[in-house]
Design brief:
With 394 residues, the protein is α/β, with parallel strands linked by helices. It has eleven helices and 19 strands. It has helices at residues 14-25, 51-59, 63-69, 93-100, 109-121, 168-173, 249-254, 261-268, 311-328, 332-361, 390-393, and strands at 7-10, 31-34, 46-49, 75-80, 86-91, 105-108, 126-129, 134-139, 144-148, 153-156, 158-161, 180-192, 204-209, 212-219, 224-232, 245-246, 276-282, 290-291, 294-296. The protein has an eight-stranded mixed sheet. A hairpin with a 4-residue loop joins β9 (144-148) and β10 (153-156). Bound molecules: flavin-adenine dinucleotide (FAD). Flavin-adenine dinucleotide binds next to α1, β3 and α9.
């Protein structure tokens, strides 16, 4: 396809920046990224980068940056909420590298965002426009018009909606459905590792109990512990959304009464000013992610529960496969067909499996968890996906 096609990317989150960088590396020369926030920033939290995700990031040139900034845990384990008994142990580190040819890493979200921003800044084809909140999109025979909240407009030949779970592109051109509360509330915090007893061994540990889980893993080479605590909520009508709804340590602790001392000690270390919660929202799968000159990527297309740690991975894979499709197929229609046919079945599958994993992890019988073979992102074969290679192979 012609490389001077003007392309608009809506949203400069992980999915949007990966898409922009992948497009530039494929030789596209006119990529405008529109982000509603006045500055590019990520929340203070960690992120799992599984081998399928790291393989895609390495493919767009971020291998050295990832190696410098991410941690590679040698193992991970699941433990019983009360006794702390080890229920499952998963090998990571070199064993996964040998198996998949790409690392399993843990990274601070802000560090991955920085890598992507630096990568885009090195590409003259990519222009990032902050302070541009999209209101709606419309299209005609020659292109797409993007209308922003402040009255400004922009044109492009193709618009890619990477604007997250509350996507304006999706609302405006695909479906008027609203995100649904999944029934899970999550708390997150980053704890400084200041004493030997703060160090986790292995450095990634998940405690599970009925209706609750508590995940901890190190990022920034062991300087910080990322905490994600999830509880099934009573209030099924939660409408408040966002990653930064203030909570209190007392509220968090009230969900973990009677838990293992490791978890209680971690909760005591959460700074009151840094205790945030958010309601996890999901949406029904769309019949299609493309409509004419519009297409969706990441959470805008397929928001999912976080129980496989694959939401960002899917956004990253989407961005790379979309860029490869646009580069390798002769027309826009062919490219968007290829993208959707390669990506939708996989993302729909992961969306469903992630929800099922949540039910298993926080099911009614944590005592027997792990006694039969665990169904996980690894056992489902998700790590082997090669986003850089699938278009040429299709
Ligand atoms: C508790 C939890 C833990 C998770 N852990 C992991 C993990 O370990 N590994 C993993 O792979 N995934 C994980 N995920 C999922 C992952 O965070 C998301 O799937 C991922 O961030 C989606 O990226 P995105 O770019 O599609 O959307 P987002 O990251 O939401 O980015 C959307 C961007 O669009 C911008 N935007 C929104 N509306 C507009 C508008 N109208 N106009 C312009 N810009 C707009 C936003 O400001 C934002 O910058 C987790 C999710 C949760 C809830």
């Amino acid at each position: 396809m012609q490389r001077d096609l003007p392309i608009a990317v809506v949203g400069a989150g992980l999915g949007g920046l990966v898409t922009a960088l992948a497009l530039a590396r494929e030789g596209f020369t006119r990529i405008d990224v529109y982000e509603r926030s006045p500055v590019l920033a990520e929340v203070g939290a960690g992120l799992t980068i599984s081998p399928n995700s790291s393989r895609a990031l390495i493919g767009i040139g971020l291998g050295p940056g990832l190696a410098a900034r991410a941690d590679e845990p040698p193992a991970a384990m699941t433990r019983h909420w009360q006794s702390g008994r080890v229920l499952t142990r998963s090998v990571r580190g070199q064993a996964l590298r040998d198996q998949y040819g790409a690392p399993y890493c843990l990274i601070h979200r802000a560090d991955l965002l920085d890598l992507l921003v630096e990568g885009c800044a090195a590409q003259p084809a990519v222009r990032i426009h902050t302070g541009h909140a999209l209101r709606s999109v419309s299209q005609d025979a020659t292109g797409v018009t993007l209308a922003f909240e402040d009255g400004r407009e922009a044109r492009a030949a193709l618009a890619i909606g990477c604007d997250g779970v509350k996507s304006a592109v999706r609302r405006s051109a695909f479906a008027a459905d609203a995100p649904q509360f999944s029934g899970y509330v999550a708390w997150r915090a980053l704890l400084p590792v200041e004493a030997p007893e703060h160090r986790l061994d292995p450095p990634a540990q998940l405690f599970i109990g009925i209706g609750h889980m508590f995940m901890r893993y190190h990022v920034r080479h062991g300087a910080l512990t990322n905490v994600v605590a999830v509880a099934r909520a009573q209030d099924t009508h939660w409408t408040e959304e966002g990653w930064t709804i203030p909570s209190t340590v007392a509220e968090l602790a009230s969900h973990y009464v009677g838990w293992h001392e490791d978890i209680l000690a971690a909760i005591r270390r959460v700074p009151e000013s840094q205790c945030f919660k958010w309601a996890i929202h999901v949406r029904e799968p769309l019949p299609s992610w493309r409509a004419g000159r519009l297409v969706l990527v990441g959470d805008a297309a397929h928001p999912m529960t976080p129980f496989m740690g694959m939401g960002a991975a899917m956004a990253i894979e989407d961005g790379v496969v979309l860029a490869r499709s646009l580069a390798l197929r002769p027309t826009l229609d062919d490219a968007l067909d290829t993208y959707e046919s390669l990506r939708k079945p996989r993302a729909d599958f992961v969306q469903v499996e992630s929800a099922k994993r949540g039910l298993r992890l926080m099911g009614s019988d944590p005592d027997s968890y792990g006694q039969s073979k665990e169904v996980s992102e690894d056992s489902l074969g998700l790590f082997a996906y090669d986003a850089m290679g699938v278009v040429a192979a299709a």
